Amino acid sequence: MVLVFGSFLFSIILWIAGIFILYIVISAAVRDGINKSVAGQFIETKYGINKERDSFLDRDLDNDK
Fold it and tell me: From 5's CA, which of 14, 23, 54, 57 has a CA 20 to 30 Å away?
């Protein structure tokens, strides 16, 4: 019984890790694809949208922002 539960738990952990890695890969591909596309460059030049997003470390509680 313990071996079955352990393999089931391990399987769930692997699924969660796989989905997280897939999310990171897809979000990076979409973000880079949009920024480097002709339409993305046109929007940046026309509307001047070139704001860099703050990272998680920039929004730390120790900062005075």
Answer: 23
pLDDT in tens, 1-54: 456 667 888 899 999 999 999 999 998 888 888 778 888 888 878 887 655 666
Exposed e or buried b for every residue in 13-46, given b needs 16+ CB within 10 A?
Answer: eeeeeeeeeeeeeeeeeeeeeeeeeeeeeeeeee
- Of 30, 35, 37, 29, the C-alpha closest to 52 is 35
- H-helix or E-strand spanning residue 12: helix 2-36
What phi and psi, each to the nearest 5 degrees, are found at residue 24?
A: -65, -45
Residue corresponding to tokens 């997003």:
53
